[in-house]
Design goal:
Elements (H helix, E strand, L loop, with lengths): L5 E8 L5 E9 L5 E10 L2 H15 L8 H22 L6 E12 L4 E5 L2 H8 L3 E3 L3 H5 L9 H8 L6 E6 L2 E7 L5 E8 L2 H11 L8 H4 L5 H8 L2 H4 L21 H20 L9 E4 L6 H11 L3 E3 L10 H14 L20 E3 L2
Parallel strand pairs: 1-4, 4-6, 7-10, 10-11
Antiparallel strand pairs: 1-2, 2-3, 4-5, 6-12, 7-8, 8-9
Helix pairs in contact: 1-2, 2-3, 6-10, 8-10, 10-11
Bound molecules: adenosine-5'-triphosphate and the ligand CC(=O)N[C@H]1[C@@H]2OC[C@@H](O2)[C@@H](O)[C@@H]1O[C@H](C)C(=O)O.
Length: about 350
């Protein structure tokens, strides 16, 4: 570190459980952000299976605690995260690592959110300070614990001017609205790719609907979609956040493979349309990040249903695949600088809140 600038690594393994994203940035935790490197390491199918088993067990648990299956998965992914950092740094130094961990259950209404991964162990293994458990302080203070990325969206957008809307289409979707005065409004919009992934996995053993080709060959069943979108959660105002498992495939279970994919993809677009009603103003365009921006059918349906042009964040020079990992690097530096990462407008926390636990090496 020199003159308030940190070399920070960020590690994210999102709700789609596709693997680990690792990014290296130089930042002061405020407006200076310089990307230095990025890599993705896919999870092996066996790891993903262990994570799915952990999620199933976590769903049945009243409070996070020791569990042999979950603890083993946590140790396995911690070792994989250490490998990812070594591959990213290739021996170069870093001042801090922001370690999100794998969300296996998210229950802010019960006062907890659970990201597995051993922050202390990672710091020991790497010999670099690690900031982990970034969501719990927010939940303990009465926030939703998510979304956290808005503070990083604000840093990136500072050069753009004007209201900006950033839509993340990951396993779960979320939107950040940055007003002209830099005020942030953010919330989860609904399942983005999670249900589509679950559908194609269950029917054909596929990890996702590549390019949206399956959805493009099916027909949207509007009455089924209306039933799915009619639940109170979508009409409820923010703050709000979602567990990956909050919605099921029940409503589409009688549809053909292609029609199910089409209906679920349209449902994701519809949830974004419903979310826009909760923003203080209608954005002129949607800057789309997350893996869903690679789904051409979803992008087309999004623009059609919202009536707003939807462009990948690359249109403004951001790195869509790296953004979440970069964001957790940025948040780790903010933790070291005692700067807040969540706000009343983003998670509903009563006051701006510093998040994360620092594990020294
Ligand atoms: N080429 C593609 N075509 C269609 N869908 C894709 C493509 N590439 C990625 N996706 C979708 O994007 C998902 C991964 O997105 P992303 O990596 O942003 O999610 P995540 O970070 O795990 O989730 P979250 O943001 O909810 O934590 C995949 O599971 C898949 O559904
Ligand atoms: C509890 C949890 O892990 N939530 C994730 C998830 O994936 C997308 C959406 O739901 C978002 O709220 C959050 O992740 C991003 C990185 C965030 O906090 O901004």
């Amino acid at each position: 570190m020199s003159s308030g600038l940190y070399r920070a690594v960020g590690l994210m393994s999102g709700t789609s459980m596709d693997g680990i994203d690792a990014a290296l940035i130089e930042t002061d935790g405020e407006s200076h952000v310089r990307p230095l490197g990025f890599l993705s390491v896919p999870y092996a199918d066996t790891t993903r299976e262990k994570l799915r088993a952990s999620i199933e067990r976590a769903l049945a648990i009243e409070m996070p605690g020791a569990d042999p299956v979950i603890d083993a998965a946590a140790q396995e992914i911690t070792a994989l995260h250490a490998d990812a950092v070594r591959a990213l740094l290739k021996g170069a130094p870093a001042d801090v690592v922001g370690f999100h961990g794998q969300t296996i259950a998210h229950r802010p209404e019960r006062g907890w959110t659970w990201q597995i991964g051993d922050g202390a162990g990672l710091a020991q293994t790497l010999g670099i300070p690690v900031v982990a458990d970034l969501r719990s302080a927010d939940v303990a203070a009465g926030g939703q614990g998510a979304p956290l990325l808005p503070v990083y969206h604000r840093a990136l957008a500072s050069g753009l001017g004007g209201p900006v809307a950033v839509l993340n289409l990951g396993g779960v979707g979320n939107i950040t609205f940055l007003g002209a005065d830099d005020a942030m409004i953010a919330f989860d919009t609904g399942p983005a790719n999670a249900l589509i992934d679950d559908w194609v996995l269950a029917a054909r053993g596929l990890s996702h609907d590549a390019g949206g080709a399956i959805a493009a060959s099916g027909v949207v069943h509007e009455e089924v979609l209306a039933r799915m979108a009619g639940v109170d959660w979508f009409a409820a105002p923010p703050p709000k956040s979602l567990d990956r498992q909050a919605f099921s495939l029940n409503a589409v279970s009688g549809l053909s493979f292609e029609d199910g994919a089409a209906t679920l993809t349209a449902f994701t677009a519809e949830t974004v349309r419903l979310g826009l009603d909760h923003l203080p103003a209608r954005p002129a365009r949607l800057l789309v990040t997350g893996g869903g921006r690679h789904n051409a059918t979803l992008m087309r349906m999004l623009a059609a249903r919202t009536g707003i042009p939807a462009d990948p964040v690359e249109a403004v020079g951001w790195r869509g695949d790296a953004m979440e990992a970069e964001g957790f690097a940025y948040m780790a530096v903010r933790r070291l600088c005692d700067l807040p990462i969540s706000f009343p407008g983003t998670t509903g926390v009563p006051a701006p809140t510093v998040g994360g636990i620092v594990f020294r090496s």
